[in-house]
């Protein structure tokens, strides 16, 4: 067995672990604490939030001042979710502490997006609906993982 065979074998083990939804800590030991699905939920919230924020900016530039609160809350949510993503990815001991704040900020964002709910049936402000739904899903995931 040469070095290439060892590296290829290790890559296969890593790929199998990733496919099984496992994450690995720095020592290589696998753990399954809901980390990978939580990271996915945070990423979805960040993606939908970025689209919502862009929609808010577009609407504000057209003079629609009703989007001001939504823009503010989605900007706050993006900031905290970026930090939360990093803390979960790092498997930080302080992720649970940040999760409590993240839940509150995501709820504030969802509430601000919900102010546009009447428009969703008319296919308007659907960016806000997606952000709203992602925030609520992330809150559920954070509570599941961190209590």
What features would you describe in this structure?
- By secondary structure, the chain is mainly α.
- The chain has 2 domains: 32 residues; 113 residues, Up-down Bundle (Substrate Binding Domain Of Dnak, Chain:A, Domain 2), CATH 1.20.1270.360.
- It has a two-stranded antiparallel sheet with strand order 1-2.
- A hairpin with a 5-residue loop joins strand 1 and strand 2.
- The longest helix has 27 residues.
What attributes does this structure have?
147 residues; mainly alpha; Substrate Binding Domain Of Dnak, Chain:A, Domain 2; 2 domains; two-stranded antiparallel ribbon; 6 helices; elongated
Q: What's the SSE blueprint?
A:
Blueprint: H1 3-19, E1 23-24, E2 30-31, H2 35-61, H3 68-89, H4 95-114, H5 117-120, H6 126-146
Helix pairs in contact: 2-3, 2-6, 3-4, 4-6
Quick synopsis:
This protein has 147 residues and is mainly alpha-helical. It contains six helices and two strands; from the N terminus they run αββααααα. The protein has a two-stranded antiparallel ribbon with strand order 1-2.
């Amino acid at each position: 067995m040469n070095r290439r065979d060892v590296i290829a074998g290790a890559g296969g083990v890593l790929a199998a672990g990733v496919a099984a939804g496992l994450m690995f800590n720095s020592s290589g030991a696998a753990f399954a604490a809901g980390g990978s699905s939580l990271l996915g939920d945070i990423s979805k919230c960040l993606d939908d939030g970025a689209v919502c924020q862009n929609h808010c900016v577009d609407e504000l530039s057209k003079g629609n001042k009703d989007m001001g609160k939504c823009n503010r809350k989605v900007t706050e949510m993006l900031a905290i979710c970026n930090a939360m993503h990093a803390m979960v990815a790092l498997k930080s001991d302080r992720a649970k502490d940040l999760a409590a704040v993240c839940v509150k900020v995501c709820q504030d964002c969802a509430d601000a997006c919900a102010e546009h709910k009447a428009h969703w049936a008319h296919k308007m402000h659907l960016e806000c609906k997606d952000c709203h739904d992602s925030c609520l899903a992330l809150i559920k995931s954070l509570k599941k993982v961190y209590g």
